[in-house]
Amino acid sequence: MATRRSPTRHKTARKGTRKAARKTTRKKAARKKASARKASRKKATRKKATRKKTTRKKAARKKTARKKATRKKTTRRKGARKVKKKKATRRKTARKKTTRKKAAGRKATRKKTTRKKGTRKKASGRKAARKKATRKKATRKKKTVRKKAGKKKARKARKTTTRKATRRKAAPKGTTRKQTARKPAASRKKAAPRRTAPKVARPAAAPVEKAPAPSTPPVSPAPALRPPTPPPAVVPAPPPRPSPTPAAPAAAAPSAPAPSAPTRGVSAGSPQRIGRVTHYFPHVNAGIVKLEDASLRVGDTLHFRGHTTDFYQRVDRLELDHGVVESAGPGQEVGVQVSQRVREHDEVFRVSS
């Protein structure tokens, strides 16, 4: 059976239970608060940890970003440097190419100039060679012409000598040289009155016209000019002088040096040395005569004599210092037009005036 409890006890028990309940509640609240505090602390710590983590991550990210940026900058700088280097190398190569092209162009221009110079030199050499060839041809032609003229003169001289020899043979055998030398004096004396009439026209007489003829210039004029004037006393002075007969001029050829020392007091018809030839101009056919001790006038007949020259010429024109003159005195050099060639140092004699 159940025992009853007393109300006091019951009240006390209730009070104790209440206090215990309160204590427990209080303990529970404290526990809750402590747990809440722990949880809050844990949360705070967690938050702090998370914040730290986030900050660390952010810092790491920033570092990585900075590193990336620096890397990019470095790469960009490296790339810029590489680009600069590439550009510099390209510029260098371009400059080298331009310098090479310029050098090649200069070489080409030099080659062209050298070729042009070579062609010009060749052309000038060819022109010079052509000129030399033409000059040689001209000289050869002149030499051939001179040789032909000399041969012609030699032939004419041979013909004249043969004619003279034939005339000598045809002459009478009894006559001697002395007789032939004396006979002309008598014949001249006899023939003098026949030729006294045309004395006025003597400058234009036949002997002067025969002098330029190419056949026999030295033979025909000599007897025509000399016979009229020299007296018999003067004739023996130059023994080699030809007689009026055609056979006499042959003897006059070997006596070329006779007029070199003539007498000063010679008559007008006898040969008188005037001077000598100093120069000859073939393109004008004129010779320069230096007068020594005598004068010369227009109309005088001259006798040119030398080693290979022997002909007569009438003076139709005189020139002194490129001017026409009627007369010239001793010591002057006068130009005389000549029909045949004259050599230097040829003696000049005046036959008539």
CATH superfamily of the domain at 271-353: Translation factors
Overall 3D form = rod-shaped
Identify the CATH class of the domain at 271-353.
Answer: Mainly Beta
Rounded to the nearest angstrom, the distance between the terminal CA atoms is 227 Å
Strand order of the largest sheet: 5-4-10-1-2-9-6-7
Secondary structure tally, helices: 5
Structural class of the helix and strand makeup?
A: alpha+beta
Share of residues in strands: 5-15%
What is the helix fraction of residues, given as a range? 55-70%
Number of β-strand runs: 10
Per CATH, what is the topology of the domain at 271-353?
Answer: Elongation Factor Tu (Ef-tu), domain 3
Q: Which CATH architecture of the domain at 271-353 is right?
A: Beta Barrel
Helix and strand sequence: HHHHHEEEEEEEEEE
Mean pLDDT: 74
The parts where pLDDT drops under 50 for at least 5 residues are 175-268
* Rg computed from alpha carbons, rounded to a whole number of angstroms: 74 Å
**Largest sheet data:** 8 strands, antiparallel
Q: Could you explain the architecture of this structure?
A:
The chain is of the alpha+beta class and 353 residues long. The chain has a domain at 271-353: Translation factors (Elongation Factor Tu (Ef-tu), domain 3, Beta Barrel). The chain has five helices and ten strands; from the N terminus they run H-H-H-H-H-E-E-E-E-E-E-E-E-E-E. It has helices at 7-170, 177-195, 206-210, 221-225, 249-252, and strands at 272-281, 286-291, 296-297, 301-305, 310-314, 318-319, 324-325, 327-328, 333-337, 347-352. It has an eight-stranded antiparallel beta sheet with strand order 5-4-10-1-2-9-6-7. Strand 1 (272-281) and strand 2 form a beta hairpin. The longest helix has 164 residues, at 7-170. The termini are far apart.
